[in-house]
């Protein structure tokens, strides 16, 4: 089941189609052999709203088919993300004078998230996640959890049970929830008057600048810019009082949001408004340019793989959602990439969505080092290069497609 829209999911204006990536499987639906015949597909096409400038998917599989008891992504597979959340917990305590009794809520805390670090320091917290397996993993670490989809209805229950929150966080979550109005209504309902909502998600400017079109897949129903986020905030009497550009997810933006007039607005906010204005971010030509760059990227990447695979074995490092978009859009199968290696137990010995490339564990990679390796998890490349520096030669062996297809 999928949901298609002809109107902006936020403001209901008519949308304008941008890039269409064609028939796509569910990005994180890694398959057992016997599941291949029942695989489902949808049309991965993007659009933007000329009124509020929200960049979004036209069609999205139902959230229930994406976030469930077999959700494939466990955040603890990345040391970098663990450090990221640990640092954020310290920042919240120091910069916002968080007290132990203040309630902090994390929407989409996966197998621990930032609230796990608040829990370790004895702070009042609540994690909310719709996927049962990752919620159970968080629970086993002692994190207070509600295993549910966050929306306005749930916010009423939370308010009755726990009271209002001083801080609400969502990291790589807001972009996943199609009913964005219900999320903001819920946050408005739950946040203390001087509370703050922090959200970090892939940043549209990075996506367009790097042609990292692989950030576009079923779970990312929205890719936000400062302009679109600002338009959403205004409707709920919120304002963005600070922004922080992050390296996570290949380039993200962290937005600090409060009720209008409650905090001093940082000069960072205007800096990024100016940047978006300077690159003509709200013009139709920007979207046409992005479409052309995606097609160019696809052609160059396929040509490179075809050339290298003539005399070499190529593997892929990290069975990511992102690589589902790349492999299906570029029609890359085992003729070009022999196998994918990944450390996540729920992905190992399965097949990649759509193109059915086998996924093997790290031991297999070690025992069968390829000639070249595509960085499917390119957003973790620093961590991967460090890990592999004495194993898989770092220079001249890795293939990337961002910002252009090349060997590094
Ligand atoms: P992620 O960054 O979440 O990408 P996406 O959101 O596109 O799915 O996933 C990274 C994947 O890479 C995850 O499956 C774990 C894997 N991985 C490894 O196998 N080894 C590593 O050293 C790292 C850092 C990640």
Protein model, in words:
- There is one protein chain.
- The chain is an alpha/beta fold and 408 residues long.
- 34% of the residues lie in helices and 23% in strands.
- The strands form 4 sheets. Strands 8-7-6-9-10-13-12 form a 7-stranded mixed β-sheet, sandwiched between helices. It has a 6-stranded mixed β-sheet with strand order 16-15-14-17-18-19. It has a 4-stranded antiparallel β-sheet with strand order 2-3-4-11.
- Strand 3 and strand 4 form a beta hairpin.
- Helix 2 (79-95) crosses helix 3 (113-120) and helix 5 (152-162) runs parallel beside helix 6.
- The longest helix is centred in the C-terminal third of the chain and has 26 residues, at 284-309.
- The chain is globular and about 65 Å long.
- The mean pLDDT is 94.
- Bound molecules: thymidine-5'-diphosphate (TYD).
- Thymidine-5'-diphosphate binds at residues 73, 77-78, 318-322, 342-344, 347, 377, 379-380, 383-384, 387.
- Residues 73, 77-78, 318-322, 342-344, 347, 377, 379-380, 383-384, 387 line the site of thymidine-5'-diphosphate.
Label this structure with key terms.
6-stranded mixed β-sheet; binds thymidine-5'-diphosphate; 19 strands; alpha/beta
Q: Within the largest sheet, what's the order of strands?
A: 8-7-6-9-10-13-12
User: How large a portion of the residues is in β-strands, by DSSP E?
Assistant: 15-25%
Summing up helix and strand content along with how strands pair, one would put the structural category as alpha/beta
Largest sheet: 7 strands, mixed
What is the straight-line distance between the termini? Answer: 41 Å
What is the 3D shape?
globular
Low-confidence stretches: none
Quote the average pLDDT. Answer: 94
Helical proportion, percent range: 25-40%
Over the alpha carbons, how many angstroms does the gyration radius reach? 21 Å
Summed up, the helix count is: 13
Q: List how many beta strands DSSP finds.
A: 19
